[in-house]
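Hi R.,

Here's the input for the 2'-deoxycytidine-5'-monophosphate complex you asked about:
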Amino acid sequence: MLNQKIPVITIDGPGGTGKGTIGMRLAQHLGWHFLDSGMLYRAVAKQALQKNLPLDDAAQLICLIAELPIEFRADGDGVETQVYLDGENQTDQLRTEACGNAASKIAALSEVRDALLDLQRSYRKLPGLVTDGRDMGTIIFPDAPCKIFLTAKPEVRAQRRYHQLKNKGLDASLSGLLNEIVARDQRDQNRHVAPLQPALDAITLDTSDDSVDEVFAKVLRIVDKALALS
Ligand code: DC
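And here is the predicted structure with 2'-deoxycytidine-5'-monophosphate in place:
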């Protein structure tokens, strides 16, 4: 079967809008594969930080990508995909704000984005792929039959992140998180390559006032309609 014929559902948007939670739940519901593309950027950034590489050194970052020892595994309760680097579960370390910010910096380099293209597309496998990120619908899978763009007010996203961290027993400052979210949005939206924006054929949902169950129900309606038409 042509790779192009394997269905893809793209869920793009800024951090804290519920893309990951909704995407994972949707993949489980459909029995499809799931790709959290932000984890690829986070993994490269983490390795660069560990090796003390400057985050704007495209040549060295590309070398890291060529040998990126990343593996996604549906471990434990199977609710959250675990990310392994060099055979070690690094999911929590990769989810830190430090890794997210570093990821956002390296993600602004066109060489880094180009080097991650084939790897991202290699996750397109039968029976289908649900993927979350910033440019899944615009650049990586422009032919996807179903594209969703999630948004939410920065204050709401900061609150969600704050509760996530507190629930994990980690220290957090609400105002600090809000500042970081706004700064990261600006960098992701204003970069020259693949800026964060909805694809022209994406359906945008504002999740500010909805619970996860409500967003999931809306997403399912969009998906059912799109897949029936494709
Ligand atoms: O979704 P996330 O917070 O894990 O992503 C971390 C950073 O990686 C984000 O600030 C921008 C970058 N990113 C990107 O540029 N393109 C993607 N498809 C996914 C993430």
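One thing worth noting: Strands lie at 8-12, 33-36, 70-73, 82-85, 88-89, 129-133, 146-151, 203-206.

Cheers,
M.
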